[in-house]
Amino acid sequence: MSKHLLLLILILAVCTNVFAQQTKSISGVVYDSNTGEALIGVSVLEVGTTNGTITDFDGRYTLKVSSNKVSFSYVGFKTEIVNITNSGTYNVNLLSDNELDEVVVIGYGTQRKSDLTGALASISSKDIKNYAVSNASELLTGKAAGVFVAASSGQPGSDAVIRVRGLGTVNDNNPLYVVDGQFMDNISSLNPSDIERMEVLKDASACAIYGSRGSNGVILITTKGGVKGETTVTLDAYVGVKNSYKALNMMNSDQYYNFIMKAYENDASFQNSMKDKFTNQYQKGYNTNWWNEVTRTAFNQNYNLSIRKGTDNSRSSLSLGYVDDQGAIITTEFKRLSLKANLEYDINKFITVGANVNLAKIRKRDAGAIPSFDFIQKADPFTPVISPLVDPSSENYEYNKYAPTEWSYDPNPVAMLELPNRYNDIFNVFGNVFAHIKLYKGLSYRVQYSFERYHDTFKDFRPVYSSTFSEDNLANQESKYNKETQLNNNSAVTSNYLVEQRLNYNTTIGRHKLDAMVAMTYEKNSSEGINAFKRKALGNDEIYQILDAQTAGDNTSGGKETSSMLSYLGRINYVYDDRYLATVNFRADGSSRFAKRNRWGYFPSVSLGWRVSNEEFFKNLNIENTISNLKLRIGWGQNGNQRIDRDAPLTLIGTNNENQWYFGNGYSQGYVPTYVGNADIKWETSQQTNVGLDMSFFKNSLDVNMDFYVKKTSDMLLNMPIPSFGAFPNSPFFNAGDLKNTGFEIVVNYRNQIGKDFNYNVGLNMSTYKTEVTKLTSEYLSGNTSRTYVGGPIGRFWGYKQIGIFQNQEEIDNYVDKNGTKIQPNAQPGDFKFAKLGESGELNDDDDRTFIGDPNPDLIYGFNLGFSYKNFDVSMAFQGTIGNDIWNVAKGSLASAGRQNALADAYTKAWTKDGDLNAVYPRITNSDSNNNMRSSSFYVENGSYLRLQNMQIGYTLPSHICQKSKLFSSCRFYVSGQNIFTLTGYSGLDPELGINNPLDMGVDTTRYPSSRTFTFGVNLQF
Predict the structure, then answer these.
(1) pTM for this prediction
(2) Which of 500, 728, 876, 1011 is found 20 to 30 A from 1022 (Cα to Cα)?
(3) Alpha-carbon radius of gyration of the chain
(4) What is the average per-residue pLDDT within 434-448?
């Protein structure tokens, strides 16, 4: 017994000793490293566990831990990881995580955020991580005040339309992309996972350094490079599904049959020769929903592997990415394989050399085989997708199996998408090489060569196929079969290079800080293309889908364009005592796109800042815990715009085989103008004044930034139509007028912590702008549905005011002008009633059209929410607009009773009888003597919306589990959704419209739909 007791005591003693060795008791005080003050409520947590505490009112803490690492985290400060070797006292000084100390990219250099005097928005990789987008341009959606982002199409890989501070011209309003110093027109080749950060330069004082390229804002993109320290390997991957979550409600077979029978009840031709066959089509029992047939639940996947490492004298990174993004429309897809390599090497303490190379191989299939997307809705519901009249064992069945529409003129949309072999193969190489030399203390020289070669090969093979028409066919037949193959094969190569030489000088003398830069750049752009067409191969097999297999119809063309620009630029940043800030920029651009006498443009800017919170009188107020930062900014600058044709100042003479005339004994070759230029055009110039206020409250937990700006654009460049009798081959460019744009922006960000485990952040950005055309060289500018006059904004909708529906003939007879003349003499009961705005006479275009809507929003906004509790995290990003109108083309183009299907509302909400006051659509007829569907306010709807753009829910595995696996050091799983819901009163497919032409802004012509996407992903670090 005593032996057993002794053994038990010995075991307990050993266990106690082991436990004592594993458990450590630590304590200490946590301080603010800047002020030395003790911090209350700091979260003290043993890494990889839930064991933790918070500091008390004196900043003190006590904790028992068994591992070797403890984290100290507090809102507004950087998290500190402390290694614990033994029990004892561990006092910790936390460094400020003040965004004011953040270094941001400003173009041809960097600057502390606290020293900025211009208007800039900064987005880091953590703000855009794990977004399921194939084009990086979509990442800015809802992220920055004054930046409106809308999808130009739901087509995978398509560029988003981005507007920085509204519209500055009636010309091209797209911003400039600068990727690691390389100018780019689009960034579809860029892997979003390679992006480290994005800066948006908004006002002229910030953009002037880019001169003629910066008038519409500049988006600076910095990609990930090597980092000093241990080799880091990361793998980010996700898989997901997407679909078109909304469809236009078209008529089913029953509704469509009744609709057509009602519309043609007084049509003798239909009643005598078509009614029976039309009824037979209906009685076959088909009820095809063509939208369901051409859309699908698509699969998408994305994988990104990154290796980053660095030593004392070198830094390198290598990343490999693959995305396979199927579209919600059948056959459409976007595939990209990308490789990025970055290397920097310090030859010695004076010279650093480096290279950054990106390669992207893209296969893109679009829906261009359908001339317009309303072809999908127009196909009649009586037609099946696959024809029952074609024998599956027959020759060429895979091509001949599709049923032709037998009432609608437009072909079977499934066949239009499935039959062609149509795609783009793109190979893009871009990057730069550089050398950086430290010449003297604070003085450095950098030379950089940036390059891009973008090769796009397009192929469109149309096969031979036949259609089997039933005996009840009533539609055209010609466009529903193909007697011979057709092949378009085009190749286009775009080459850009930029040579930049730059001197930078930085010095600090007492309270004075100076950062000066001068540079010279030379840029050359060229594009060359070859287009080839042939037809009539022996079959549809893949061996016949080449040009040499086609035997007839040879047709080729090709061309080459070049342009260049030489620039001189400089900048001075000056800071005195961290209180008074000044920035001066100047750039001179010489562009080959203008005639010699107008070739050079000069773009200066100046901006000032005052950090009020660093003044002694402010410090004496002792309110630094309430107002942590207060800075005033004011800036003025000029930018240019040269986005016109490369041959815009030139008139070109050319010829072809058609320009031959027979004289005497043979043909003589003739030469005619092929392009008419204007040698008098000059730079479009915009000047902008910006006043800003930056504030931080409650120890930097709340940030508020506000900007007010006035932007004036003169000599706007625009293609101006000229009379057709002049027989000109094109509309030349002119300096068409002037524009004024006034706006306000506000950004609010708040972050805080509850207890030791719960952190949250809230962000809001809002902007508004108002444009006013102040001068035009013509009376007005026209879009498809708009007019732009002096004194108003760009692109307001123009047409008649629809004010009701005539209920009976008496109302029509009583609707007269002051002279008793009927205003709408051709109207019938059930037709639309339009407002008479002129003094007298019948309704007419000259007197009775007016402004009926404005696509410019009153407010653009975005907000985000973020929460984290222990290892769980949730983020949500919203965006929307208020006060903009949309012209819904489908309400007219898909409402008529003819050889096409129509919206269900055109039947269920049509006027049917006297007193039908709830009717929305006019009477059902195939003979519209009143022209009900003329351009009118009937098409105009409120386009305001709120969209949950992205939501993520993630869980990070505890570190001790990761360490036990011996496979990876960190692991996070997440589920994500995009376009989760949209709150809007708009009846069309999507209120978010990305329209490039400002004169057609807000016009919804029924396009490739946006998709709702759900993904599951993982972030691994090895």
Answers:
(1) 0.86
(2) 876
(3) 34
(4) 93
